[in-house]
Each structure stands twice: as structure tokens, then as C-alpha cells.
Design a protein that fits this description.
Layout: H1 6-12, E1 15-20, E2 24-25, E3 37-38, E4 43-47, H2 48-55, E5 68-70, H3 78-86, H4 93-96, H5 100-110, H6 114-136, H7 145-150, H8 154-180
Antiparallel strand pairs: 1-4, 1-5, 2-3
Helix pairs in contact: 1-5, 5-6, 6-8
Length: 181
């Protein structure tokens, strides 16, 4: 991902539950207590970029623990993963996170959880075939497929657009070739 990638920036703003391991004076404004102290054991949802920066920080004494520990965000917690395992086509990924797969990839950089990774891969494969079917069916977006299309997250929408416009582009290209020969 590029530094200037808007999708990467939006993914890094996704809220991530962070549990403080140390008392931190002066950061109370993160918890609605301006000027106060964040107590050890407090869990606060922070943007991912901030949570990651705090997770790699430690106290000011040698051997002190990290400042915060990161937890899985709600879109990747077990309840959603179980729903994806049951039937990935029925889960509204956009409601979970607009950049669901990018969030999953970013979280997999931070946590090593093969079961979640496998579920995300299986979900994408299953939904990609449905997306391709909907893209080639001109009535799919108006009929039964409308609810499914509303639930597509951003990379799935790009896939739908490419699958929908691809055959048109190939047809135009072949017609141009015929005309030029």
C-alpha cells in the first residue's frame, strides 16, 4: 500500500479496542476525562494507527510492559467469523467495515490467527463467484441480487465493476480490431 492510498488511510482509521497496561497521566481525554489519567486495565477504542503506535511503546523504565495491548476489532471478532463460516454470502460486510478485507489484511499483520485468515480467504472466494454471477446477470442488480450488492465492501465493489465492464471492453476491442483490418 502506498502512503497516499486513500483506502489504506481509511482502513487505518478503523477503531480497534486497546487495553492499557499502565496508568498513563494526561491521556484521559481519550476516555472523555480531559486532563485525567487512563488507568491500567481500561479498554478504549482507538483508531488503528494510534493503537499500533501505542502498542509498540513501553513505559519509561527498563523491562516495563508495553503501553497497550490490541484486541480484534468488532468486524473480526468470533461472532462475525462464525457467521462467515456458516454462510459468507449473507453477511453484510459493508456494514461491518467499508474496507473489510483491507482491515482483515492489516489485522493479520498484527495477529497470527490462521483460523481467521482461512475464513477471510474462503469468504472472498465464495463471494467472488457470486459477484461474478451478479455482474454478468443484467437483472441481478435489480432483483434478488440488490441486497447482496448493497452489502459489498469496497474491494468487492471494484471486483463487481471490473467483472461487469470487462466483457463490454473486450467486445469494443474486438470490434475495433475488425474495423482496422
Amino acid at each position: 500500500m502506498s502512503y497516499y492510498d486513500v483506502d489504506a488511510i481509511l482502513t487505518d482509521t478503523q477503531k480497534l479496542p486497546c487495553t492499557f497496561q499502565l496508568d498513563v497521566p494526561g491521556l484521559g481525554y481519550l476516555d472523555g476525562n480531559a486532563g485525567g489519567t487512563v488507568k491500567a486495565g481500561t479498554t478504549i477504542e482507538l483508531p488503528m494507527w494510534l493503537g499500533v503506535m501505542l502498542a509498540v511503546s513501553t513505559g519509561n523504565t527498563p523491562g516495563s510492559p508495553q503501553l497497550v495491548t490490541l484486541n480484534f476489532p468488532p468486524p473480526l471478532q468470533q461472532r462475525v467469523i462464525n457467521a462467515l463460516k456458516a454462510n459468507p454470502r449473507t453477511v453484510d460486510l459493508r456494514a461491518q467495515a467499508p474496507h473489510y478485507y483491507a482491515l482483515g489484511a492489516r489485522i493479520m499483520e498484527l495477529f497470527e490467527d490462521q483460523a481467521v485468515l482461512d475464513t477471510l480467504l474462503d469468504t472472498f472466494k465464495s463471494r467472488a463467484s457470486e459477484i461474478a454471477d451478479q455482474a454478468h446477470n443484467p437483472r441481478g442488480a435489480l432483483g434478488d441480487g440488490a441486497d447482496f450488492l448493497r452489502g459489498l465492501e469496497e474491494s468487492e465493489r471494484q471486483l463487481f465493476k471490473a467483472a461487469h465492464e470487462g466483457p463490454k471492453s473486450v467486445k469494443a476491442w474486438t470490434q475495433d480490431l475488425r474495423r482496422s483490418t
